[in-house]
Amino acid sequence: MSLTKRRFDALIIGAGGAGLNAATQLANADARVAVVSKVFPTRSHTVAAQGGVNAALANVLPDNWHWHMFDTVKGSDYLGDQDAIEFMCREAIPTVYQLEHNGVPFSRLDNGKIYQRAFGGQSQNFGGAQAARTCAAADRTGHAILHALYQQNVRARTHFFDEYFAIDLIRDDEGAILGALVLEIETGEPLLIEAKATLLATGGCGQVFRTTSNAHINTGDGMAMALRAGVPLMDMEFFQFHPTGIAGKGMLITEGVRGEGGYLINKDGERFMERYAPNAKDLASRDVVSRAIVTEVKEGRGVGPNGDHVLLKVDHLGEDIISKRLPGIRESSKIFAGVDPVVEPIPVFPTAHYVMGGIPTDRYGRVVTPIQNGPEEVVPGLYAAGECACVSVHGANRLGGNSLLDILVFGRAAGQDIIKYLKENPNHRPMNETGVEQAMSRLTRWEQKGEGLSVREVRDEFRKAMEDHAGVFRTDEIMSEGVEKVKEIRKKLADVRLTDHSDVFNTARVEALELENMVDIGMSIVLSALERKESRGAHSRPDYTERDDTNWLKHSLYFQEGDKIDFKPVHTKPLTVETFPPKARVY
Amino acid sequence: MNQSTPSIEKLRWQCRRGMLELDYVLKDFLENHYPTLSVEEQMLFVKILDFEDQLLIDWVMGNVVPSDAKIRRLVGLMQAG
Fold first, then answer.
1. CATH for A244-350 (3.90.700.10, 3.40.50.720, 3.30.70.20, 3.20.20.100)
2. ipTM of the complex
3. Catalytic residue among A32, A90, A228, A286
C-alpha cells in the first residue's frame, strides 16, 4: 500500500485551547500549519471549562502577578517550577488581553473593564486577604475561548485535519521528531504528515479511571505517543480527584452541595463523615472525604446492587434551596443518576478530574528529557502544551483558574518558539522509513483476525484496576497490586482482536488504539504513585501522611523502557524574584 | 437504513463531544431512540449534531428551551435517557 504524504512547517496534534492558540501564532506568522484533531475542533474538552482564567489585572481588588505567583507556588505544594510559574503569572496579563482582542466576550464591570471573580486559593499580598483574579465569560469561558481561537485559525488559513487520529510520532536516529503518522477515521486511510516541528496538545487522560469527569476523548493519546518515542512522563502520580462525581458516570456534583448542608450517607443511612472527621465532617478536605467514601465501599457499607458507591443526601434542604442555590444539580441528577435530589439522595463516588503531570517541557513548550548530558535536554522538533504537558506550573496540585491559563500561555509560548525554530531549521529532515514502518505496524496489528479478547472487556478491567489501585486510596500494598494488575492487562493487549475490520468509520479500531494509549499511561501513574513515599498536594498516602521536603522535593520521571522511574530537581529559582521556600500549606 | 442518513458508525463518532454529559446523552439517544425515529427526525438529529456543545448542553440541562417544536421533542427524549 502506498502511503500518502503531506508536508507542513508545523504539525499540531490536538485542537483544544493549547493547540489552537499555538496554531494562531504560527498561522499569523505565515507558517504552513496542520492541526490534527480526532473530533471536530470545537468539540475539544476545553469547551467544558466553565470557571475562567486567572490574571492579576487588579480590576476588582488590588492584585499583581507576584501575588498570583505566590499562590500558585503554594498551591503546587512547592513542587511547581518557580521559573515557569513566574513566567505564567506575568504572561497571564497579556494573554487575557490577546483573548479579548481575539473576540472572547469576557464578562464586564460597569466601568467597562473585565470582571474578575474570587476563587479559593487566591490571596492579596502573599497569603493575605482574598483576591479576585479570575476572568470569565459568564459560565462558558472555555466555549468562548475555543470558538474565538477556532475562528482566528479559520481566518489565518490553518489547515485542519478533522476526525484524524494520530497513531505515532516519527523519530530519526538522532532523536529528532519528523512528524507523525495519522489515520483518517472516515476512510481508514493512513497519512504521513512531515513537519519541521510537532506540538502535542492532546489534553488530559481522565479516561484511564472508571469514574472521571473527563469526556470520552480524553484518553491521553499525546502522552502515550511521547512515551513510545522514548520521552518520559513527569509527575504522573499527581491527579486531582473530586469526592463527589455521579456514581458510574463521573460528572461533578459541586462541593457547594455539601457547603449548603448536604451530607454523605452509607447503606445503613449513617452520616459516616462524622467518624472520619468529627469536626469538619462533610466539609473535610477533598482527599479525606474521597478516601472515606472509598473506605465505606471497601468495608461493605456501599450502596447499590454492587455496593460500589455512597449517597449524597440533600432532600432535607428543601426544593426551594436546591433550586435557588444549587442550580443544575437537580437536572444533572435526574438525567445522569435517574434521581430527583428533592426526594432521593444522589449516588456518588470520587471522580478523576485533572492530571498535573505530563510530558516534560520547558517554559517555551519544548519537550525536555534526560538524554546524555543532563536532565533537561531539548528533543529537537518536539513541543507539548496544555494538560498533556508538564511545565511544571501546577506541581502537586492545581489552583482553580490556572488550567485555562496554562493551556493559553504555554500554547502561545510554544507557537512563538516554533516560529523561531522554523527560522533556524528551514528544511525538513530526511524521513526515517523504519520509523514509519514501526508506526504503521501499530495500525496493521489490528488487522489480525480470529478469536480473542474484546476491547471493551479489557478496557473495563483496566479502568476498574486503575480506580481501585491508583485512585484516592494509595497504600504500598494497594498500589503494588495495581502495578501487577496493569502489567497483566498490558500483556493481555496482544490477545485483543477486533471483529470489525472495515475501513470506513471503524470506530472500534480507534477505541483499540486509545486503549493501548491508556494502558501505557496507566502504568506511568501507578508506578510513579507507588514510588513517591510522601503525601504532597493531590498525592495523598495514608502510609506516608506527611510532605517530605528532604527526600521528595523532586519531580518523578517514568520511562516506558524497562518501566523505569527516575527523578530530576525542582526549579526553585524564579526568573527575577526571590525563591518562595517551602512552608506548611495552610489555608 | 435510509440512503440520505449517515452511517451509525459515523454518527457514533460525532456523538463524541467535549463534555462528558453530552457523550452520555447523545450516545444513549443514538442507541435507544434514533432507530425508532422517522427519517425526517433522524435527519434533524444529524443536523443537531452539528450544533455547538454549549447550546446542546443548555438544551439538555433545561437552561434554554428550543424554539422549534420538533427539536424540543428530540431534546425531551434525550433528557429521558
1. 3.90.700.10
2. 0.96
3. A286
pTM above 0.90, yes or no: yes
**Cα distance between residue A254 and residue A244, in whole Å:** 7
For residue A507, give the nearest of B12, B18, B20 by CB distance.
B12
State CA A118 to chain mean position distance.
23
For cell 467514601, name the residue: A293
Between CA B24 and CA A333 the distance in angstroms is 13
Grid cell digits, residue A278: 468529627
The alpha-carbon gap from B18 to the nearest alpha carbon of chain A, in Å, equals 4
Q: Which CATH architecture has domain B8-80?
A: Orthogonal Bundle (1.10)
Choosing among 3.40.50.2300, 1.20.58.100, 3.30.565.10, 1.10.530.10, the CATH entry for A443-544 is 1.20.58.100
In terms of CA atoms, which chain B residue is nearest residue A140? B54
Contact across the interface for B10 and A505, Cβ inside 8 Å? yes
Q: Can you give the residue ranges of every domain in chain A? A: 4-57+137-238+355-435, 244-350, 443-544
Q: Which of A299, A298, A273 is nearest to A288 (CA)?
A: A273
Question: With 60 as the cut, is the pLDDT of residue A581 above it?
Answer: yes
What are the respective helix, strand and coil percentages of chain B, to the nearest 5? 65, 0, 35
CA nearest A428: which of A179, A184, A201, A249? A179
Query: Which B residues, 31 through 60, put their C-beta within 8 Å of a C-beta on chain A?
Result: 52-54, 60
pLDDT in tens, A373-409: 788 999 999 999 999 999 999 999 999 899 999 999 9
